[in-house]
Specification:
heterodimer; A: 281 residues; alpha/beta; six-stranded mixed β-sheet; 21% strand; globular; B: mainly alpha; three-stranded antiparallel β-sheet; 14 helices; binds adenosine-5'-triphosphate; binds magnesium ion
Chain lengths: 281, 356
């Protein structure tokens, strides 16, 4: 890999997989030579990837390929050791997790991370934290702004829950939801932050085929209603091939292929490294 | 009634706390006026109020924020000695005692708030056991510093010197004629005009309850609960962990300062040693036994466990035995998952990796 100089933009090799409608607009995400090493192990190396404003993109690859690590880099849980991350034209390489969230990156987790002691509605309200605001002072003294904004919290939380028809569960403790519902709640909570880019880490894991089918429809619906980009990690090839417009295949931390579903499915290297021994493939 | 049924369990318990505290206050006041309380019991009224406020405020840090603090008495001590100095030096200017008590409590709370902020800056970055150790050290350091403090007051105002080398005394303040000593180093506060009242304590408990209950059920409180539940997820939705921990911690220390001021002004003299590690642990015991995050539990535990040793004095030798049995019974009664979580926190366990 060529040494990358900070601040100097390097042209991204292939834009070809960005859907036509997003071409000519600033990509929502642009990773350039992104990489991280853990004590010599290059968990992600020379990751160059671009996502259009309303694209649904997929990140696939065998276990331990570095997919989750890419998400952790994009959300600044980890600091990259190489490269740049551009979000809608802004360099976010040096930002914190909280700043990145405020700038429009939301995510779910492979191992569900809900606020399990809080109610379903409160989970979404925490997601709305930076969308609806009043001071701690107004909260303690129950000033008019508290009542007004709490009403807004409630209405917006219910609206968001209605995406997955979860309004009835609003008062349930998040930790006691069934597995599939927990995964959906994580998506709702992420959407509550009003993101430009939604990162989903194995959203269909543990779901039955019916639930997965519904999830596929809902991901497309979310993209259409909110006009946002979605990047998802998934082992379920039916889901990935069904809804992803651009797919990126990782193996041992490196991109081995990029392209549309057909291109990926017929790529011999991908078949050898991943699809060949995958259950669904 | 319908309204009451619509509320969830925790808000019902919260409203019950207000009712219970008010009822207890009225009953005790009537009993007192009817001459049914002996001198000893009368003397316990204000301290009980102080310890209830201490337990409630520590519950905010330990139960609601989920961080173990072992130095809560240090903040009480900041409030106590600030309150004493303020009240003693304002005696001539503000003869009205309730007003002076109010001002002293506000000043005590303010100093403890600043103390909480300064301690919070380094400490809240730490996790689990480290936070406990640093707060413990803070409590001891504050005690040592106040042990070196010599404060007096005369026409020209308040004079303060620190007796770090052990060679200074109240004479070194060079007070003018008619000046008085307020704090005499290791002897502590002396000759304090006691102005705390049971009513003052009752009002402080109500205010504390009001602040904590409303705080928890607001945007800020939700953020704190979210951080406790899952810090990584909270950050991922844009909740600034340090900021919200700081807000909760400062509210907690502020209330401890207020309790301290009320406590310090209840006695004619008090030493810094009163607010040592044992006191911090005592308050922590109230919180843990009352239930983490359970405000009503904190009130009951603080009341029972503070009065019990005194009430048992007549049983002389068996006193500590009965006390221990009661402790065990309460512990069994409140042996809920949250208490277990706290123990899991004290005994370090390997935590899961980041962000998967
Ligand atoms: N904090 C870390 N320290 C050291 N190594 C790490 C760390 N995080 C990830 N790794 C390593 O990076 C590699 C990629 O891990 P990652 O979790 O990104 O894989 P993945 O593609 O998400 O796999 P899976 O499909 O199993 O979720 C693994 O070898 C892992 O051990
Ligand atoms: Mg993963």
């Amino acid at each position: 890999m060529k040494e990358f100089e900070k601040g100097k933009m390097v042209p991204v090799p292939s834009h070809s997989i960005i859907p036509e409608r997003d071409i000519g607009k600033t990509p929502v995400l642009e990773c350039v030579h992104l990489g991280i090493e853990f004590g010599g192990l290059k968990a992600v190396d020379d990751f160059n990837f671009t996502i259009g404003k309303t694209e649904i993109a997929g990140l696939i690859g065998p276990n331990g390929a570095g997919k989750t690590t890419v998400f952790n880099l994009l959300t600044k849980v980890y600091n990259p050791t190489h490269g740049t991350i551009m979000l809608d034209g802004d360099d976010i390489t040096q930002k914190t997790t909280v700043q990145v969230s405020k700038m429009g990156v939301a995510r779910t987790f492979q191992n569900i991370r809900l606020f399990s002691d809080l109610s379903v509605e409160d989970n979404v309200r925490v997601g709305l934290h930076n969308q609806v605001k009043y001071t701690p002072f107004a909260g303690v003294l129950r000033l008019p702004s508290f009542w007004k904004k709490e009403k807004e919290f409630h209405e917006r939380a219910m609206d968001l829950l209605s995406i997955f028809d979860m309004q009835d569960m609003a008062a349930t403790k998040a930790g006691s939801l069934p597995y599939g519902a927990q995964r959906r709640l994580e998506i709702v909570r992420a959407l509550a932050t009003n993101p430009k880019l939604l990162l989903l880490d194995e959203p269909a894991a543990g779901m039955n085929p019916n639930e997965t089918g519904e999830l596929m429809e809902n991901i497309v619906k979310i993209r259409d209603t909110f006009q946002i980009a979605v990047l998802l990690i998934e082992h379920d090839m039916k889901l990935v091939m069904g809804i992803c417009e651009g797919i990126c295949v990782l193996n041992f931390g490196r991109i081995i292929a990029k392209g549309t579903a057909e291109q990926i499915q017929s790529n011999p290297e991908v078949i050898k490294a991943y699809l060949g021994n995958s259950k669904e493939g | 009634m319908k309204l009451l049924r619509n509320l969830d369990k925790s808000s019902r318990r919260n409203y019950f706390s207000y009712v219970l505290v008010t009822a207890a206050f009225l009953i005790v006041t009537f009993m007192n006026q009817g001459g049914m309380l002996n001198k000893k019991m009368q003397g316990l009224l204000v301290p009980v109020c102080c310890y209830i406020v201490m337990a409630l405020s520590l519950n905010l840090t330990v139960g609601i924020m989920g961080e173990l603090s072992l130095g809560h008495a240090g903040f009480m001590s900041l409030g106590a000695f600030t309150g004493v100095v303020v009240s003693q030096s304002l005696m001539g200017v503000i003869p009205n005692e309730p007003l002076r008590l109010l001002i002293a409590i506000l000043c005590g709370a303010a100093v403890a708030a600043v103390g909480g902020f300064l301690i919070g800056l380094p400490v809240l970055r730490l996790r689990g056991d480290y936070l406990a150790i640093v707060t413990l050290a803070f409590g001891e350091i504050i005690m040592d510093i106040i042990n070196c403090l010599i404060v007096g007051h005369d026409e020209k105002g308040v004079h303060i010197i620190f007796n770090f080398k052990g060679d200074k005394s109240i004479a070194d303040l060079n007070l003018l004629e008619g000046g008085t000593a307020i704090i005499k180093g290791a002897q502590g506060a002396v000759g304090t005009k006691s102005i705390s009242t049971f009513t003052g304590g009752f009002i402080l408990i109500l205010i504390t309850l009001f602040i904590i209950i409303n705080f928890v059920r607001s945007r800020t409180g939700r953020a704190v609960l979210a951080i406790r539940d899952n810090r990584i997820a909270a950050e991922s939705v844009g909740v600034d962990v340090m900021k919200y921990k700081m807000i909760a911690f400062v509210i907690s220390t502020t209330l401890a300062g207020a309790a301290g001021a009320l406590y310090g002004l209840n006695f004619t003299g008090i030493t810094a040693a009163k607010f040592n590690f044992n006191t911090s642990i005592l308050v922590l015991v109230f919180v843990v036994l009352g239930g983490l995050g359970n405000l009503l539990g904190s009130i009951i535990a603080a009341t029972v466990l503070y009065i019990l040793p005194e009430a048992l004095r007549q049983f002389a030798d068996y006193r500590m035995l009965i006390y221990a049995v009661v402790l065990i019974l309460v512990m069994l009664a409140t042996n809920n998952p949250k208490v277990k979580n706290l123990f899991a926190k004290i005994i370090p366990v390997r935590r899961k990796g980041k962000g998967d």
